[in-house]
Amino acid sequence: MKQYPVVWFYILAFGISWLGWVPVALGSHGVVPFNNPYFQFLLLLPVIGPALAAVIVTQATQGRTGVRGLFGALVRWRVGLVWYIVAVLGPLAILMAARAITGLLGLSPTGPAVQGDPLPLAISAFITSLFSNPWEEIGWRGFALPRLQRRHTALLATLLVGTLWGLWHLPLFFWVGQPMSGYPFLPWFIGTVAVTFIYTWLYNSTQGSLLPVTLFHIALNTFVVVSGVSVVALAIAYCLIAIALTVALGGRHLSRRERVC
Predict the structure, then answer these.
(1) Cis status of the peptide bond prior to 146, with omega within 30 of 0
(2) Which of 224, 227, 237, 251 gives a 20 to 30 Å CA spacing to 90?
(3) In this model, does residue 116 exceed pLDDT 70?
(4) CB–CB of 58/82 below 8 Å?
(5) Distance, CA of 74 to CA of 210 (rounded, Å)
(6) Contact call for residues 171 and 220 (beta carbons, < 8 A)
C-alpha cells in the first residue's frame, strides 16, 4: 500500500461500494437471491466506501495522524466567506444556466417531472446528500486528488479523479428503478468529468478544505432533482465552466494558489 496508495484506494473504494450496489442492481432484474429486500442494507457500503477506503490506506501509510488530517479537512472552516457563497449559490447559478440551455436547444428535462410541491423532494434529496456526500469527498478530494497532484498537474489529476468518479457510479445505470438508470450515460459521464474541475478549483482555492467542496456537492445534488434540466444541457454547462476555469487559471493549479499536494 505504501508504494501505490492511490491504486489501493481506488481498488478498495470500488470494491466496497460495488459490493453494495451490484447485488441490489442484480436483484432489480429478478436475480435470485438478490431480489430479497434484505439485501437493501448493503446500500450502506457505497455511502461509506470512498471514506473507508481512504481511512484504510491512510492508516496503513501514515497512521493515526494521517487519518486525523483526513477528517480534519472536513471541518476546516476558515476559508473566507466568498467560498461559502460559491458553494451554496454556485449550483443554483449552474442549474439556471442549464435550464436556459435546455429551453434554447429544445431538450427534454431528464427524469420524471416534479408533480405538485417540489419542497418535499428537495428536502429528501438534501437529507440523502447530507449523509452521503461528505464521505465521498473524504475519498475523492480528501485522499485521491492531493496525492495525484503531487505527481501531476491539477488538470491531469482532475481528469483522472473525474473519470474514475464517473465509472464508480456505473452499477447505478443497471439498477432498474433507480433514477440514474434512465440517464443517457455518455452525456452524464462527460458532465461528471467536467464538473470535477469545479471541485478541484474549490479544493485548491481553499488550501485543501473539504467543507466548501462538500457543501457544493450537497447543494448541487439537492437542487438538481427539482431543476427540470436536461442531462445534456447540464453537461454543456459543466464543460463551458471547466474550459473557462482552465483558460482563466491555467491547468497547472486550477486556482490562483498552488495546487494542494
Answers:
(1) no
(2) 251
(3) no
(4) no
(5) 5
(6) no
